C-alpha cells in the first residue's frame, strides 16, 4: 500500500476528534473518535524525528507535505530527501481557521478492524516507507 493510500484510510476511517494518545520521543500514537471521550487508537507513527502538532485537533485531512512545505520545514529542522513528511490540515483550539501540522516519521502502524493484523509496505517514489497494520491495543 502506498503512503497516499494509508493517509486516505486515516481520512476515511478516523473520526472527528483526534488526540495524541502517547509520544515517547520516537513513537507517536494517535487516537480518534466522535469525541475525545470516545477516542480509540487509530495509528502509530514510528521513527518520529519531528513533531509539530497540538495534543488535540478536529476534522483532520492527512496528506503528504508539498515541496514548498518541506522546504519551509527544512529551515527549522533537518529534513533529508528520503524523509517522509506527513501534513495534517485540522482545526485546533489555537484559532478559528484550520492550520497545518507536521509529522516526520519512518513508518506507521494502523490499528486493524477486528484485531486482524496485516503487514504491508508503502512506497514513496522508489523508496519504501514501511508501515505495519496491528490489532488495537498492541
From TrEMBL:
Protein's recorded name: DUF2591 domain-containing protein
Source species of the chain: Massilia frigida
Highest classification ranks of the organism: Bacteria, Pseudomonadati, Pseudomonadota, Betaproteobacteria, Burkholderiales
Amino acid at each position: 500500500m502506498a503512503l497516499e493510500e494509508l493517509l486516505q484510510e486515516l481520512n476515511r476511517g478516523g473520526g472527528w476528534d483526534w488526540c495524541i494518545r502517547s509520544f515517547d520521543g520516537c513513537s507517536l500514537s494517535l487516537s480518534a473518535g466522535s469525541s475525545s471521550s470516545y477516542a480509540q487508537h487509530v495509528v502509530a507513527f514510528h521513527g518520529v524525528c519531528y513533531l509539530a502538532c497540538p495534543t488535540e485537533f478536529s476534522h483532520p485531512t492527512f496528506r503528504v507535505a508539498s515541496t514548498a512545505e518541506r522546504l519551509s520545514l527544512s529551515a527549522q529542522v533537518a529534513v533529508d530527501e528520503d524523509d517522509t513528511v506527513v501534513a495534517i490540515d485540522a482545526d485546533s483550539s489555537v484559532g478559528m481557521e484550520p492550520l497545518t501540522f507536521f509529522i516526520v516519521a519512518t513508518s506507521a502502524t494502523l490499528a486493524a478492524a477486528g484485531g486482524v493484523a496485516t503487514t504491508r509496505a508503502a512506497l514513496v517514489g522508489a523508496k519504501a516507507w514501511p508501515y505495519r497494520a496491528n490489532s488495537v491495543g498492541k
